[in-house]
Specification:
Layout: E1 7-10, H1 21-28, E2 33-39, H2 51-70, E3 76-79, H3 82-92, E4 97-101, H4 106-119, E5 124-128, H5 150-157, H6 200-203, H7 208-222, H8 226-229, H9 242-246, H10 252-264, H11 270-291, H12 313-321, H13 327-339, H14 344-357, H15 362-372, H16 378-389, H17 404-411, H18 416-421, H19 430-433, H20 441-446, H21 462-481
Parallel strand pairs: 1-2, 1-4, 2-3, 4-5
Helix pairs in contact: 3-4, 7-10, 10-11, 11-16, 13-14, 14-16, 15-16
The chain binds flavin-adenine dinucleotide (FAD).
Length: about 475
């Protein structure tokens, strides 16, 4: 039945069929294709999927399997060491080729190199782009170096042709096989009791269709106002495409094509331009991770290596649970726990609070995000945390400390966001919602808020926390300029 030797289409970080260059290239060979996914929990080392993303992966794989079934083939599920599984499969079916879409995490680059070294003598091993608009090694400064600052990077890449997205190829020959497929239910990706992911299904539709739907909704309803609405966490104003992009359920090229088409119908380019710029922030994060692969754990700026962070598990736990006493911070941390996502503005405020007011190492916060974010992405998460902590490329300087009270008042002035996530404060008037300790006893009583009981007192006074962080910075700088 299968006379021609098949091509293994390995779904690595890309869980989609459209605009999938590896699939298109495999189809163009006219050889039969065997789609496979390998669940490998060991190769990523410390960066194995966090709890939230396991939930997403389960549902995204079910969706991909369904889409393939609609085309007449099922996805072969394997579990174990990727190289061993692919090698075994390749020799079992006498594969002619292994095609996949490349990834950029340091562990994944190492794995891809090992796969290439082990298999390329026996079959054609080909990897393709598609997770990004362009390969991160391509952008170079005039001096031939990688970029360290966003704006010049962006100016150098924004006008480069990215090509049109490709549809699912129609001429695919699938490979009929007798390989034993695992049941993904056995992988225990979903939480058992207590089911902390209970609300995820109401909010998200993992898979390629869900990604297309989110893009369509954003392009028709929100992109026009993106520039002004994107900073207000209490209203829907951003695309929420991040988990779909993280799992490769949609390509950035598809996103751009759709937004450009929407922009052609729009009266102003402000919203679309501002959104496209954010897509390039994602590209920039990957550019940084590619050239500085140590950034998930080490500060981009070497001089911050010895910064006197204060490891403090009690403070970290209060922050994680949304019990810092600062409503905008706590609302963000609770949104994260309940929905697996947090608004960008609030990510900055929460991260700043942890690393500045509490002086907890940014790596501890990044690790919590890694476990709880559905969109956890090694490039974006590392760059985001380092930006806030002041030790990253093009970062906000360390002395820039987000004020959680005024940030709340400015970006959640009507309190929709805080009231949604902290119902115990819902009856407080707007004037004190972001600083409940400033409310009079009468106001607190009529809102039925007992500070310290229903909702915590601030764990650190804003001014005290701010001064402490600035003092530590000044001392640190002084120590560096006078090491003796
Ligand atoms: P939109 O505003 O609709 O933007 C569209 C897309 O552009 C996003 O999906 C994302 O892919 C990209 N993007 C937007 N803002 C940024 C940014 N600042 N940096 C890089 N790419 C961006 N993003 C992640 O995808 N994964 C992470 O793990 C992650 N961790 C973060 C940690 C911190 C401390 C901070 C400050 C930011 C982090 N971000 C991360 C960036 C940003 O918060 C999210 O990408 C964004 O909130 C996702 O929501 P959205 O899809 O609605 O974004």
């Amino acid at each position: 039945m299968n006379k021609a030797r098949p091509i293994i289409l390995w779904f690595s970080g890309t869980l989609r069929l459209s605009d999938n260059p590896a699939l298109s290239a495999a189809a163009a060979t006219a050889k039969p294709i065997l789609p496979v996914f390998v669940f490998d929990d060991e190769s990523p080392g410390p960066w194995r999927l966090g709890g939230a993303q396991r939930w997403w992966l389960h549902h995204s794989l079910c969706a991909l399997d369904q889409s393939l079934s609609d085309l007449g083939v099922s996805l072969l599920f394997k579990r174990g060491d990727t190289l061993s599984e692919l090698s075994r499969l390749a020799s079992d079916i006498e594969a002619d080729g292994l095609f996949f879409q490349r990834r950029y995490e340091p562990w994944a680059r190492g794995l891809e190199d090992r796969i290439h070294a082990a298999l390329s003598a026996k079959l054609t091993v080909k990897r393709f782009g598609g997770h990004l608009l362009q390969d991160p090694e391509r952008a170079r400064t005039g001096g031939g170096k990688p970029y360290r600052v966003f704006t010049p990077y962006w100016k150098s890449v924004r006008d480069q042709e990215v090509g049109a997205p490709s549809p699912v190829p129609s001429n695919v020959r699938w490979y009929a096989h007798n390989e034993r497929s695992e049941a993904i239910g056995d992988w225990r990706l979903l939480p058992t009791a207590p089911d902390w992911a209970l609300e995820f299904s109401d909010r998200w539709q993992p898979g390629e269709r869900g990604a297309q739907r989110a893009l369509e909704t954003f392009a028709t309803e929100f992109v026009d106002r993106y520039a002004s609405d994107r900073d207000h966490p209490g209203q829907p104003g951003t695309s929420t495409l991040s988990p779909h992009l993280a799992f490769g359920e949609i390509s950035p090229r598809q996103v751009l094509a759709h937004i450009h088409a929407a922009a052609d119908r729009s009266s102003s380019m402000r919203g679309p331009d501002s959104f496209v710029r954010q897509i390039y922030w994602r590209e920039f994060s990957y550019h940084l991770l590619f050239h500085w692969p140590q950034i998930p754990l080490e500060p981009f700026r070497d001089e911050y290596k010895d910064f006197p962070w204060r490891t403090n598990n009690t403070a970290l736990a209060c922050w994680q649970r949304g019990r810092t006493g600062y409503p905008i911070v706590d609302a963000g941390m609770r949104q994260l726990w309940r929905t697996g996502w947090m608004h960008n503005r609030v990510r900055m405020i929460c991260a700043s609070f942890l690393v500045k007011h509490l002086m907890v190492p940014w790596q501890d916060g990044a690790r919590w995000f890694w476990d709880t974010l559905l969109d956890a992405d090694l490039a974006n998460n590392s760059a985001g945390w380092q930006w806030v902590a002041g030790c990253g490329a093009d970062a906000a300087p360390y002395f820039r400390i987000f004020n959680p009270i005024t940030q709340g008042q400015k970006f959640d002035s009507k309190g929709h966001y805080v009231r949604r996530w902290i119902p115990e404060l819902a009856a407080l008037p707007d004037e004190v919602l972001h600083a409940p300790w400033q409310a009079s006893d009468e106001v607190l009583a009529s809102a039925k808020v007992r500070l310290g009981l229903d909702y915590p007192e601030p764990m650190v006074d804003h001014k005290v926390g701010r001064e402490r962080a600035l003092g530590a910075l000044a001392q640190f700088k002084e120590g560096r300029s006078n090491p003796n």
